[in-house]
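Late entry, evening session. Most of the bench is empty. Finally got around to the prediction I had been postponing all week. Sequence below, unchanged from the version circulated by S.P.
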Amino acid sequence: TTTTTTTTPESYSSSTAAATLRARSQLAERVDVVLCQALALAGAHVDVVLENCVRNNDADGVLERAVKGGRLLLGIECLLSTLNDELGMLEDLVVAAEWLSSLKFRFVARRAPTTTRWRVVREERNIVVEAAVDGSVAELLQRLCPPPHPCETRIDCVLFSQGINEWQTVANMSGASSLQTEVNASGLRALTEHVDAAAARCSSSESRSRAREWRRKLELASEAVRDANATMKNVHVLLTTADLCRALAGSHCICCKSGKDRTGMAVTLEQTRALAQDLGVLDEKRVCKILRRHGVRRVNVLANTHQDRYAFTTVQVKLLPRAYRPPSGTYNGGAQT
């Protein structure tokens, strides 16, 4: 005996509607989580810029340009691979970077110590993040944009990505790195626009000299992005764009999946390069090994996993670019990820 089950239009539409509702709810929750974390990053970026500008009395004019029609620069260096769940994380990061570039930041006087430091409001189609400031920060901002003019700025968030782990090796071999290529091309366009806008505001001979240096570094970054090979891990994309962000007085954020292993290698590399470029420190390889073996990144790993070893196996280390390999004795394949 054969039993035939039929699905009525009513039951089909009901089940489809329920599935659609669940998908929308999950997507909304995912977006909320991503944007909340991105907003925290942007707030930290703004705070760092304010602190630096107060310390040097905005000698480079970074804050003045920002509140007079310019933008602050936030560069994100992503080490996620383009396979498995990390591909979805990279997609989330793309959305976050685009969203951050649409925000408006407004600085307002902090009326009392108990006043909320940050507040998010919606004005027509704009999302405005209000930052309450006082003390020397408020004095500097009042001088740069005296009342009744609002003291506002926006962020140019530029994202560059290069997977460095073993999964990126697989992705490169299977031709699954197209998103990475698109992200870097988009990031380069945004960075070029920021350099053009910043250079257009340079009027003095000293500032025009800085603008020429920006152009030189931009050309190096452009070459790195253009020369990127889908079968290789071109970390020069990350290094050259990081140099340009630093030259433009922007903040530079580094991230991977867990923020401790690959990020630890990238952060110590960045610290070493800064020491060599800014302070003339010699023997960079040795300095980098010391930072990775004895620096705070080991403490960060310990705080996250209760083990002081980076979560790399011997095979994984061999598949990392040489500049991102941890010293022997500092990693353990059995460590938590």
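Two things to note before I forget:
The longest strand covers residues 152-161.
The first helix runs from residue 9 to 55.
Will write this up properly tomorrow.
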